[in-house]
Write a structure and sequence with these properties.
Helix content: 10-25%
Largest sheet: 8 strands, antiparallel, barrel
Structural class: mainly beta
Number of helices: 3
Order of helices and strands: HHEEHEEEEEEEEEEEEEEEE
Distance between the termini: 21 Å
């Protein structure tokens, strides 16, 4: 969720540059969303939780960051095709538009849930506790992140809207289990973080981004990818590292397997 200060975004950085994929967003749509009832409820919730006021950011003009994220999400959730991965359960990986390069994982045991995430690909990991209700709701204790102890989210699961919806209108979109933290046996001192996010406004597609480095003192890299079936694999563009532009990594449930036999094991296990 988003109980931290919203910093001024530098759109030239790797962490935010993928928003350029959304150039089809029209200023008129953003303006109408900013005036919608969702925007009004956002203001009420922020005053209740004493959040910092929104700052303005520059992206194809001066846009409110929350309105921009809501517009992207509205297109992705409202018109995208039904996901092919198992979306019937609240368990899984999610994408939060207010922390687009972060991670969210939900794991359910009985009537309780554990939520693990980070707000940026290299951010500090946090863990939250949740309790499931009979009405597909989840009551989450956000106090470790400076939020309320009993924020209620609603899990929605239908053809055009799969995820957790919060009272302020924010939605965590359920994404492929490919999203997560990985290790690479060929570079044991490095890291790989794969984020998965929707491409909005009716495309029905999801993209992936891999952030990483090969060890201390090495240059950070960023790879973009297209999902080849939402839970079967991803085609990465390895050209920033001198590799091919469409290298397919297959997801076998526990990691990403490359054509040369190298496997990146997934290491962000809930509860660790």
């Amino acid at each position: 969720h988003h109980f931290l200060l919203n910093d001024l975004v530098d759109w030239s950085t790797p962490r935010t540059s993928f928003f350029r994929n959304y150039k089809m967003v029209r200023i008129t749509v953003l303006a109408s969303l900013a005036l919608s009832s969702t925007a009004l409820s956002l203001g009420k919730l922020e005053r209740h939780h004493k959040m910092a006021p929104q700052q303005q950011v520059k992206a194809e003009g001066i846009l409110n960051r929350r309105s921009f994220a809501s517009a992207v999400l509205a297109g992705a959730v409202a018109t995208a095709a039904a996901p092919a991965f198992a979306a019937s359960s609240i368990d899984g990986e999610y994408w939060d538009p207010f922390h687009p390069t972060g991670l969210r994982t939900v794991q359910v045991s009985g009537n309780t849930a554990t939520l693990v995430g980070r707000d940026d690909f290299d951010g500090k990991e946090w863990k939250l506790a949740g309790e499931l209700g009979d009405d597909s709701s989840i009551l989450i204790d956000f106090s470790p992140k400076g939020g309320p102890k009993d924020l209620k989210g609603k899990f929605v699961n239908n053809a055009d809207n799969v995820g957790i919806v919060f009272p302020d209108g924010n939605r965590w979109v359920k994404v492929s289990p490919i999203a997560g933290v990985y290790s690479d046996p060929n570079h044991p001192e490095g890291y790989r973080v794969v984020t998965v996010y929707p491409v909005g406004f009716g495309s029905g597609y999801f993209m992936a981004t891999c952030f990483g480095n090969d060890g201390p003192g090495t240059k950070q890299f960023k790879l973009t990818g297209k999902l080849a079936g939402l839970d079967s694999g991803v085609k990465f563009d390895f050209s920033p590292k001198g590799g091919p532009t469409d290298l397919l990594a297959k997801f076998d449930g526990s990691g990403l397997v490359f054509p040369d036999g190298n496997k990146w094991p997934k290491v962000n296990v809930v509860g660790n």
